């Protein structure tokens, strides 16, 4: 499959205080590196998940891809064209082919616009000749399973699930090749979550767009995505096929995240792994492997040496950064694979 989106060594930095304050507080780094050298690709029609605790940099990656945030360095190319180096006007035709579904569906919809105006706004934003607004709104509402008379409603007259459907319809307005869905199920009842996910999956089947999905919900990742990337302090610490990572996580952080996720299999032996302490601040990064302060397997080298990226011997597409990656050994009598430690150093 050819790459639709290719992100290479992306770095995003935020200034957190002015130079005078930095001088006064004695800090030599008045900035925060939210994304540190992230690389990945998404193929046409593929679904990739970005997973990680709050503050790990997921939304910043999404905002940088769609041009709401400048990168410090690195490259973003879409359909073979490097877009970071283009001017605003030159970028527009590429940005039009990507759509973002924001986290808060009602808050992200302008309260004074009717659903009809909201659904046809993308045409106006991108300076495209507007088709018949009524016809277009009805077509988009039909796509997401809402009646045509919803076009007259305002955002506050929508339930959470309906607002999410309108958000999906709006994202589909310009027939994008890539949808970025930031927490598409957040704040919804479980039954409505299922409906929204099924709708996204059906539309993807019908329309063939790629989806970059940002979520804390590992059940969503497991059932909806082809590949997943696990983020920690702005870096990918593991990337690979969703099936392979669920089957055989290599990084202890991934292992802990998966273990904290309720198992759908009632016979599975559920081993919760407590993560020690809080996520460190990206302004005070631990030395060596940045996860070592919370890792139950950490050894001396982990606090000293930043781990290189390695790949899984049975799947070269599965990469991770760990000095002591986990290897699976199925112990008979256990319902669930038991992970043992295999040192590489
Ligand atoms: N505009 C900004 N100015 C300064 N720091 C920022 C800004 N936006 C994000 N950050 C910081 O960048 C880091 C990454 O934030 P980001 O929102 O990308 O994380 P996230 O993984 O998407 O979190 P969440 O799951 O809570 O949305 C955090 O430390 C955050 O505080």
From TrEMBL:
Alphabetized UniProt keyword annotations: ATP-binding, Nucleotide-binding, Transport
Membrane topology note: Peripheral membrane protein
Xref: InterPro entries: AAA+_ATPase, ABC_transp_ATP-bind, ABC_transporter-like_ATP-bd, ABC_transporter-like_CS, Oligopep_ABC_C, P-loop_NTPase
Record-linked Pfam families: ABC_tran, oligo_HPY
Limits of the ABC transporter domain: 5-258
Record's GO cellular component terms: plasma membrane
Entry GO MF terms: ATP binding; ATP hydrolysis activity
Record localization: Cell inner membrane
SUPFAM superfamilies found in the cross-reference section: P-loop containing nucleoside triphosphate hydrolases
GO BP annotations, alphabetical order: peptide transport; transmembrane transport
NCBIfam families according to UniProt: oligo_HPY (TIGR01727)
Family note: Belongs to the ABC transporter superfamily.
The protein's name: Peptide ABC transporter ATP-binding protein
Organism annotation: Mesorhizobium wenxiniae
């Amino acid at each position: 499959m050819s790459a639709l989106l290719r992100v290479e060594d992306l770095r995003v930095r935020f200034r957190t205080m002015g130079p005078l304050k930095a001088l006064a507080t004695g800090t030599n780094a008045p900035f925060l590196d939210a994304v540190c050298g992230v690389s990945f690709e998404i193929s046409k029609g593929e679904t990739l998940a970005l997973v990680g605790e709050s503050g790990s940099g997921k939304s910043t990656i999404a905002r940088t891809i769609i041009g709401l945030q400048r990168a410090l360095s690195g490259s973003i190319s879409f359909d073979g064209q490097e877009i970071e180096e283009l001017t605003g006007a030159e970028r527009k035709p590429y940005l039009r082919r990507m759509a973002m579904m924001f986290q808060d569906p009602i808050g992200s919809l302008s309260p004074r616009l009717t659903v009809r105006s909201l659904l046809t706004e993308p045409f106006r934003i991108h300076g495209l000749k507007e088709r018949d607004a009524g016809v277009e709104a009805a077509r988009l509402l039909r796509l997401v399973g809402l009646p045509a008379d919803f076009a007259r409603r305002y955002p506050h007259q929508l339930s959470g699930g309906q607002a999410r459907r309108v958000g999906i319809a709006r994202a589909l307005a310009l027939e994008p090749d890539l949808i970025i869905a930031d927490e598409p199920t957040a704040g919804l009842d479980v039954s409505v979550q299922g409906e929204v996910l099924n709708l996204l999956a059906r539309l993807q089947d019908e329309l063939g767009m790629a989806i970059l999905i940002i979520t804390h919900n590992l059940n969503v990742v497991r059932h909806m995505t082809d590949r997943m990337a696990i983020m920690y302090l702005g870096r990918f610490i593991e990337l690979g096929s969703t099936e392979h990572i669920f089957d055989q996580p290599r990084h202890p952080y991934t292992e802990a995240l998966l273990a904290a996720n309720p198992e759908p299999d009632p016979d599975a032996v559920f081993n919760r792994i407590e993560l020690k302490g809080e996520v460190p601040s990206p302004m005070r990064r631990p030395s060596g492997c940045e996860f070592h302060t919370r890792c139950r397997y950490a050894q001396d080298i982990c606090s000293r040496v930043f781990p290189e990226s390695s790949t899984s011997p049975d799947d070269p597409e599965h990469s991770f950064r760990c000095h002591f990656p986990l290897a699976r050994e199925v112990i008979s009598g256990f319902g669930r694979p038991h992970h043992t430690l295999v040192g590489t150093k």
